[in-house]
Amino acid sequence: MNCRSFVAQKGKASDSMASISPVGLLSPNNYSHRIWEDPSFIKWRKRDAHVPLHSHDTVEGSLRYWYERSKVDFLNANLALWHDDAVFGALESAAFWVKGLPFVKSLSGHWKFFLATSPESVPVNFYDITFDDSDWLDCSGPTKAIGRRILLHFEAVDSAFFVWVNGVLIGYSQDSRLPAEFEITDHCYPFDLDKDNVLSVQVMRWSDGSYLEDQDHWWLSGIHRDVLLLSKPEGYRSSSVCQHPCTAYIPLVVNTMVHNQVFITDYFFKSTLDQNFLTADLQVEVKLDLWQNCENVSLSNITMEATLYDNSGWSTSGKDNDEMDLSSYDVLHLNLRPPPTGSLGSHFYLLEGKLEKPRLWSSEHIFKPEHHAMRVSGLSMVSAQLLCILAATYLFNENSSGNILDCESCQVGIRQISQAPKQLLVNGQPVVIRGVNRHEHHPRTGKATLEACMIKVKYAFLPDYNSISFFKDLVVMKQNNINAVRNSHYPQHPRWYELCDLFGVYMIDEANIETHGFDLSSTFKHPTQESRWASSMLDRVIGMVERDKNHACIISWSLGNESGYGPNHCAMAGWIREKDSSRLLHYEGGGSRTSSTDIICPMYMRVWDILKIAKDPNESRPLILCEYSHAMGNSNGNIHKYWEAINGTFGLQGGFIWDWVDQVPAVVIPYWFDKKLGLLKVDVDGCKHWAYGGDFGDSPNDLNFCLNGIVWPDRTPHPAMHEVKYLYQPIKIVLAETKVEITNAQYFNTTQEIEFSWHLHGDGCNLGCGTLNLPVIQAQESYGIEQESAPWYSVWKACSAREVFLTIIGKLRHSTRWAKDCHVLASTQLILSAKDDSIPHVVRLISDSNLISKNVGNIIAIEKQNSWQIKLNTQTGTIESWKVGECSLINQGLLPCLWRAPTDNDKGGAPNSYLCKWKAALLDRLTFHTDECSVKELTSNMVHVKTVFIGVPKDQEILLKSKSSNQESEPIHIQCKVEVNYYIHSTGDVIVDYMVNPKNDLPPLPRVGVVFHLEKSLDHVSWYGKGPFECYPDRKEAAHVGIYESSVQDLHVPYIFPVESSGRTDVRWVAFQNSSGVGLYASAYGTSPPMQMSASFYGTAELERATHNHYLVEKDYVEVHLDHKHMGIGGDDSWSPCVHDEYLVPPVPYSFSIRLSPIIPPTTDEERLLSCASDSAGDELAVLAFG
After folding, report:
1. What's the confidence (pLDDT) of residue 720?
2. 562 noted as active-site residue
3. Active-site annotation holds for 1142
4. Which residue in 92, 181, 370, 562 is the catalytic one?
């Protein structure tokens, strides 16, 4: 059978169509009524929405199917592919999605593909069986299948499509993120005709549905999820076999004489717990499909059975695949209620049961979340012995002797979602939502997730690499304490829900509705206000609920995103509440507080505003931020402020970070698609890289606005992920007066599976560590450790360190589905009070050391014989060079610096943005020039040089020259004055005192500090401060103070769009050394606070110039910034100035001091002894100085 598809880019189609009148009216070339542009026409011959069907042949087969699909853990995530081989791997493994399902076959494979650039270029009669498609592109293929009634199932097609079988128009559908299913049995050729069947699909890139799909993501049209053939029972027929689509023969039964035409088409599992959560009343509502002459079908002799199996025991049994008796894990057989009488059009069966002491599903099950596998099928009432066959529901006809007619199954979990005043409750507990928003995106395959049957390779099944990307997402989420996901902003691949059930992740399932483009329109009425859009909007909600209703992970349904508010939303809310009262309703539109939402769910609301709502006595609903902390580039500042409010305020229950992954298509190939490379952006030099809006010549575009994840496209975490993990950690540790208090913030688990340890550091050195033996802490309870009885107390009191830090770590005792044993679940660093008051940094002078000073023109040369030399230029006021022996350290001296490469958040707010204000104040063009420079003191032990810098815009440099030559000139705009005093000691120490005086009418400053260039060979960095990862003043809660090491290259953070990056905060000292150990040491001095430090081969100007990380040009020096103050990076959103006041740098006078010293490796025993004896002014790095 041949499969053909094409995309009509302008939403128009081919010229020929079947001649039947109703079909003719639906023709894509019927320009008098373009149905794909009619909001009231959304589908034709499309079957009603339902749960995913599996068409099992036996009970054992269904159990085996779920057994294989449940064998997933963190090891699978390590197989994830993100490069060219991901496309090949996904296509190769597509057929394995249906492994173990003999009546389901995948067509995700060898299609013939054509991209029509305009309606006129669509091939005429392309769907005809005689059409020559030999010059169309191949995109790969299916296997064989045998079936009965034939259902053609598209998991998702963007944005609308027509489908033909053997030249006959079968149907039409919209909604790019939900299935469309068609009955095609009568349109297939019988096998004995020896004719190929032809399946043809015409995809509209745009349709009226596109107006409801205005999400901020990559709009990639086409068939982006699996295409399946399902066969369902027809009863007893004479069986002839047909062949089915796709350049491969797919035999499917097409019978002639029907006795019973019934199969299971839908079912709804419901559980209700008693008030003590000890007994669960279970109900399964089963819907039958009656085909054609349903009046001839007798239902009186058909009964149903449902059985629950505990599949959590499968993975812990320790038995081999072939040894497992899966049926022995049954826990409950549900009882059939009498069939309904006088049913009108719909045929339902109800099965009920009661389960005592059920294990309740939640996100916290430390091993494998408790889950049950449920089977629905039919069983004859006439033969009692058949009740012993398997604890599953069977469907029989009256003439059979016990053969299975149909069998369906799904995963379910027993849990209860409810609401109390200002609380969302899961199993009676007000769980906190520590969530992220997640778009469906793969850097190589885009929106396509070709789902295979993902199981371990040792069981002889090929892995589906896009499925593995799901595993990778969930493993990384769970390892970073993320317990919830919002499907933004559409229903996602069915496998995603199965995995969230298994891994234990709360979910908001969201309808594929977003219309924020209408917000800017004064011409068109908003869809939610128009009745002609009502059916389309309601259909999307119905399709989502009907498909996903059996998943335990879903705690709330969402009506969509950013779609205003109106009567159509009221209709959608009413339908869901009547259909499924077991979950809450979520919708942000209309101000997040309408009657159509059970949760107050604002986006990007400021901390002070969410506090007002939480304290409003007239508001009884919980507040959960549907989007917050916009993670665009170097972002997520201030996020700890949200969690201070959430953890301390009743009525605030968490939120979902925006968002999970940087969305980049790594792909663009001439003619749309190549099966080997997928969607790869390749530069003219052959370099492959991650791209963003505009890189493909696409216009209009949002540039890098889809780069707002906390992980890169390959799921490598951004540095901000550390902050998220810390703030989301389920163990809270604080220092409360004389106690260290450890709180178990979980709601269901004790700390029995967590191993605690303590670590003590003084001035960066390890003082001691050990296991922390604690009693088991119950959920939501605390345990206090008195300091004087703590195991670290004696070590702390005996040490002479100036500052001492205590770190408490909680690790998993055993491996889980998502992490290996010893995985760090929580880690908190506490600063203990110093034994004595801290003393300021001072330099101990060595009196017998003499300096040699020379003045040659504008150069003051200061040296210590055979050790080091410093040259200071009195014209520029900077250190021009600094050498240790023959090794050069600095090749451009210390200059004041107020500028940084703008972040995405700096740009947010148009004319009110920080960047616009900085540019208006000319800070982006600020250069510093010497106003005066003179030697103030010159002795044998110390040289004092004073310099005064003035900061002026670049284009006024010529005015400075005019002033220096006493020529008349325009007024000079001095934005900043900086007085610098250098104290060069014979010890080799250089103390630099700064007094910075910016104009008081400037906007908040990017930074206040110094910049200098080191020799490129000094690329090994050690520092004592926060780390080891990138951190900034408003994003440093997770970073621990310690001594860390890195190369300059590894300090670089490769944000796809280059911005200010690579900073480390609260740095006490930093050292830069070459491979021989020679280098430069810098520290905060005197009473100056710790510094913000960064070092990079890419200077500020280069970070600002380059538009992509791979365009950065490495310099032949290391640019170092040591900042006394550095503005926060913000992150409340990325379109308004949002750095909190305490992290701004106001234009006021600042004074600070820095100590610089040469690092000279010891070469003699005497020098080594001196090195060990040196107190280095209280610093941990010994800096040698010899007389």
Report:
1. 98
2. yes
3. no
4. 562
